[in-house]
Amino acid sequence: MKPYPWADWLLERMDGQPCALISLLAAEGSTPREAGTRMALGASGEAFGTIGGGNFEYQAMEQARRILGLSPGSWRIQDYPLGPLLGQCCGGRVRVLIEHVDPAQRPWLEALRDPPPFPGLRTELAEGGLRRAFTEGASAPLSARSPAPKAGEAFVESLAPPFAPVALFGAGHVGEALARILEDLPFRLSWFDERTESPPGVFAADRATLCAEARAARGHVLILTHDHALDYELLRAALASPARFIGLIGSATKRARFFGRLRAEGFSDDDLARVACPIGLPEVKGKAPAVVAVAVAAQLLSLESGES
Question: Would you say domain 164-304 falls under CATH 3.30.450.40?
Fold first, then answer.
């Protein structure tokens, strides 16, 4: 998944039709999505993404359609108390920025195609449109209850993408199912296998190269190849990496055998504490590839949310 897929969607369409962007600037209390969520719409009726659905999203989309009737660069800020105003059970409060995207803003959207080396996006609210610039300055979360910013004022949003890197080794049935799931989740996936007949998107290489990739991995490493000997080589290499989590497909018996060999080679219990085998959340039962893939993806999401 790309950190800012809505930017790509806009870049592909906004020169051919008017487009609107809905940005969730602040969210407090119980809300359907978090601050930083964005949704794009085209004048032809296309839409990309969601800011949470329900009556809130419907009302925001209606505002966006109306703003497309105004000149490019037009904008408005709208506050939504979800309970009393929209009759939603969430009960929180959100603040959105709705704009008719000016094609002249293409440069900042293009810069989002790769994760930017800067933490913030500064937006200046001007009468003739919005002026945006990336900034090194840190920003506190915007409030949905303070006075709404007006023309002539500016604010900074945090843009540091929370996407953790995932190095996936193995392009078999489980690997394919897992790669499909991870494409739509907030992870940066690198996919490896030694077989040249691997699916599109897989980097095929010899074992030495795969082990070098495992040693350099950060974030999460998932090892589920077709070969136990290769699994072991990759596990040894990954234990020399700064990866915070190493998932190894297999049974408790495989775990015992691998851990016994690793301890004999000098790896400590602290080293092995990073390794999860069997892989995936244990409460998700089943051995079908799609079920295992769901269990592993849920485990990664749980790790990223700090719940395990």
Answer: no
DSSP string, 145-181: SSPPP-TT-EEEEE----PEEEEEE--SHHHHHHHHH
Pairwise CA distance, residues 225 & 183, whole Å: 19
pLDDT digits (tens, 9 = 90+) for 258-307: 999 999 999 999 999 999 999 999 999 999 999 999 999 999 999 988 76
pLDDT tens track for 11-21: 999 999 999 99
Domain boundaries, the chain: 5-158, 164-304
End-to-end CA distance of the chain: 23
**pLDDT given at position 137:** 67
The residue type found at 36 is G
Scored b (16 or more CB within 10 A) or e, 52-67 reads: bebebbeebbeebeeb
Query: What's the rounded Cα separation, in Å, for the pair 168 and 1?
Result: 14
Report pLDDT digits (tens) over 115-128.
Answer: 666 678 899 999 88
Name the DSSP letter for residue 200.
Answer: T
Establish how many alpha carbons lie within 13 A of residue 74's alpha carbon, considering only the half-sphere containing its beta carbon.
14
Give me the pLDDT at residue 307, please: 61
Q: Give residue 193's pLDDT.
A: 95
Separation of alpha carbons 124 and 3, rounded Å: 23
Instruction: Say how far apart CA 188 and CA 288 lie, in whole Å.
Output: 25
Q: Which ranges constitute the DSSP H helices of the chain?
A: 5-13, 54-67, 106-111, 173-182, 207-215, 228-238, 252-264, 269-272, 289-304
Burial class (CB in 10 A: 0-12, 13-18, 19+), 136: exposed
What is the 8-class DSSP label of residue 105?
G
Q: What confidence tier does 67 reach under pLDDT thresholds 50, 70, 90? A: very high
As given in the structure block, the two tokens for residue 140 are 């506190």
